[in-house]
Design a protein that fits this description.
The chain has 196 residues and is mainly β. The chain is 0% helix and 21% strand. It contains no helices and 14 strands.
């Protein structure tokens, strides 16, 4: 049953068959649903909602919301997965067992590989691109729109590039005609900057 092996763990909440069943000393865990955090023994500050999220979990400060979210992750901390199967598999389809400081948003989002750090794929079926990366969209997405001002210390654009609507380019700007060409609408080059 829920919290069946608990010894000194405190401030835990477990609702559902086998929720936090093997917890012994972990504390401040919230487990809502069948088999949530079932194999957690010492991890603390975890939250699991659904069926089988964080099932094989050890480590702390993880959130799994959705059926089987981060299900096989056996080690790692500070991760968030939202959606059915979010963060459950690696890109190659094998179980994700180790990850840290990562966020998986959307059903069936996958890590690039085990041991990824600070990886964030967003959208159903999105696959992470490695440690310290964010992926927005999956292979079916054809356009990405960012509204408002977007600031970045560096920008690399692959494929055809279209700049429209009074685009402001700051810093050193290098434009090279790529295969398929580069189309520029109105653009402004700020004083003291060089167009190479």
């Amino acid at each position: 049953g829920s919290l069946g092996n608990n010894s000194t763990g405190n401030a835990n909440t477990a609702v559902g068959d086998a929720a936090l069943m093997r917890n012994t000393i972990g504390y401040h865990n919230s487990s809502f649903g069948t088999d949530t955090l079932q194999f957690n023994t010492t991890g603390s500050w975890n939250s699991a909602i659904g069926t089988y999220p964080l099932y094989a979990k050890t480590g702390g400060s993880n959130v799994g919301a959705g059926s089987q979210a981060l299900m096989w992750k056996a080690a790692g901390s500070n991760n968030t997965a939202v959606g059915t199967y979010a963060g459950t598999f690696q890109a190659n389809g094998t179980n994700l067992t180790m990850v840290n400081n990562s966020t998986y948003i959307g059903a069936s989002t996958r890590a690039s590989a085990n041991s990824a750090i600070n990886e964030t794929p967003i959208r159903t079926g999105a696959i992470g691109a490695g440690s310290n990366t964010t992926v927005i969209g999956n292979s079916s997405v054809t356009h990405t729109y960012l509204k408002g001002e977007t600031n970045t210390p560096s920008l690399r654009v692959a494929g055809n590039t279209v700049l429209e609507g009074g685009t402001v380019l700051e810093g050193q700007v290098t434009m090279a005609e790529a295969q398929g060409g580069t189309s520029m609408g109105d653009y402004q080059l700020l004083p003291g900057h060089v167009l190479v």
